[in-house]
From TrEMBL:
SUPFAM superfamilies named among the record's database cross-references: Cytochrome P450
Higher taxonomy: Eukaryota, Metazoa, Ecdysozoa, Nematoda, Chromadorea
Binding site for heme: 441
GO cellular component, one term: cytoplasm
Membrane-spanning ranges: none
Protein name: CYtochrome P450 family
GO MF entries: heme binding; iron ion binding; oxidoreductase activity, acting on paired donors, with incorporation or reduction of molecular oxygen, reduced flavin or flavoprotein as one donor, and incorporation of one atom of oxygen
GO biological process, one term: xenobiotic metabolic process
Family membership noted in the UniProt record: Belongs to the cytochrome P450 family.
Cofactors: heme
Superkingdom field: Eukaryota
Source organism of the structure: Caenorhabditis tropicalis
PANTHER family reported for this sequence: CYTOCHROME P450 508A4-RELATED, CYTOCHROME P450 FAMILY
Alphabetized UniProt keyword annotations: Heme, Iron, Metal-binding, Monooxygenase, Oxidoreductase, Signal
Signal sequence annotation: 1-22
Length: 470
């Protein structure tokens, strides 16, 4: 009898506590103590065949700002651009910190760019942006390297052709091309016939890590994994270490050469990101933020943030273009006009006049929407979003996948229609595949020029020859 009374009292306490907390948050489905809305989210993901459509269902039911409880933690989702702009740009300082899975924080030790918060994140982001500018990312450097890379890849395809025809696996082609450009920017080394296997080895490790993590791994405290699932914990940590060691091998070699006097750093004109970072290490020897250990994590994060998302977007774009030949025709006509009938290569300086190509790339990114569920941010103080109170300790994000198919913003969102961005020029700003605000993806500064030049150059090349593409 006492146990029944105790259980009833405990459950009543949980229900009342949940109700009081929910009153301080935007609307959402009725949540249960302890499990929240997990059961409803799983059901709608299954029913609607995807997380984006499930989130769209909640948006249509509860509005552009709604709350889902994932276990005992409320998650506030924003599916509107203007509200996201107000929250994450105009009031960005309130939402600088990411809500990170415990295992990520444990593995990164709050180092790097993606899985860090506070002063370390702010310093590394500032350094990365300044270094990209210094080594020419976004202008001549990346243009030159990407065009060289595309020409080299096309030459390889031509050499393998039979009777003038080639079979190209688009995912392999774009994976290697993007990976090679990123590696050039970071460590000054491309992947060619002699070291392609290095890239394939890295890609295998990255894919293995992505396949390994489950919702369970990302939510439970680290001590639970260590104590009750030691083999799984060991495997996760082993793969993470392998990734960071692999991508930073060239940096480690360079650092040893600097220490031995075999390599002289050029502080005025660093050749790549690693050289810029090593210069910083030498300049700030007493700053414990600039260490080889932190460099490992920064390089790993830039790889993870840039390679897979950019390559996947290019593959998605290729498939969209194949299914919409009229779009290819319009892009090609514009590119020929800009390149003087194809007598020169497409350049980054042409972006300002590439209106239809820019619209096409924006539509590709909107459809690809690689980050279906965006990284969550923590609010450390009570705030208001679209008139709704949001209590401190909540987590909040702009749900990019649901935002990009919001039919109040993008009419007929399932249709591939680049003209929508020409009919409403302001609409292109509401495609935010790299996130928004202070925690938007740093890899954007590499990805945008790569997407422009790779997409434009491939459309231009298709004028000259047709390949069988798988």
């Amino acid at each position: 009898m006492i146990s029944i009374l105790f259980l009833t009292t405990f459950l009543t306490f949980l229900v009342v506590r949940q109700y009081r907390k929910a009153r301080k948050l935007p609307p959402g489905p009725i949540s249960l103590p302890l499990i929240g809305n997990i059961h409803q989210l799983v059901y709608h993901v299954w029913k609607n065949k995807g997380v984006v459509k499930a989130l769209t269902h909640f948006r249509q039911t509860y509005g552009d700002v709604f709350t889902l409880w994932l276990g005992p933690i409320p998650h506030v989702s924003i599916c509107d651009y203007e509200i996201s702009l107000e929250v994450f740009v105009k009031n960005g300082n309130k939402y600088k910190d990411r809500f990170l899975p415990p295992i990520f924080l444990h593995a990164s030790e709050n180092l790097g760019l993606v899985t860090s918060n506070g002063d370390v994140w702010a310093e590394m982001r500032k350094f990365a942006l300044l270094s990209f500018r210094k080594i020419g990312v976004g202008n001549n450097l990346i243009e030159e390297k990407l065009l060289e890379e595309l020409n080299a890849r096309c030459a390889e395809i031509d050499s393998d052709s039979v009777n003038g025809k080639s079979v190209v696996h688009t995912s392999d082609f774009f994976d290697l091309t993007v990976g090679s450009v990123i590696n050039l920017i970071l460590v000054g080394k491309r992947f060619d016939d002699h070291n392609k296997e290095e890239f394939r080895g890295l890609k295998y490790i990255l894919d293995s890590t992505a396949d390994l993590f489950t919702v369970f791994d990302l939510t439970v405290p680290v001590w639970v994994l260590k104590r009750f699932f030691p083999q799984r914990y060991a495997r996760i940590m082993k793969l993470q270490t392998e990734i960071y060691d692999f991508v930073s091998r060239e940096a480690a070699k360079r650092y040893e050469m600097v220490q031995s006097g075999e390599y002289n750093l050029n502080s005025e004109d660093p050749q790549d990101f690693v050289e810029a970072y090593l210069v910083k290490i030498e300049e700030e020897k007493n700053n414990n933020m600039y260490t080889m250990k932190c460099l490992k994590h920064v390089i790993g994060d830039l790889w993870l943030a840039g390679q897979d998302t950019t390559a996947t977007t290019l593959v998605s774009g290729f498939n969209q273009l194949v299914n919409n030949p009229e779009v290819i025709k319009k892009c090609r006509e514009e590119i020929l006009r800009l390149t003087e009938n194809g007598t020169r290569s497409l350049k980054l300086k042409d972006r300002a006049e590439s209106h239809y190509l820019n619209a096409t790339i924006a539509e590709i990114q909107r459809h690809a929407s690689i980050l279906n569920v965006n990284f969550w941010r923590i609010n450390h103080e009570p705030t208001v979003v679209k008139g709704y109170p949001v209590d401190s300790g909540s987590v909040i994000t702009a749900q990019l996948g649901a935002l990009h198919v919001n039919d109040d913003i993008f009419k007929n969102p399932d249709e591939f229609y680049p003209e929508r961005f020409l009919e409403n020029e302001k609409l292109i700003n509401q495609v935010i595949p790299f996130g928004i605000g202070k925690r938007s993806c740093v890899g954007e500064y590499i990805a945008r020029p790569v997407l422009f030049l790779a997409s434009g150059s491939n459309i231009e090349a298709n004028q000259k020859k047709v390949s069988d593409v798988w």
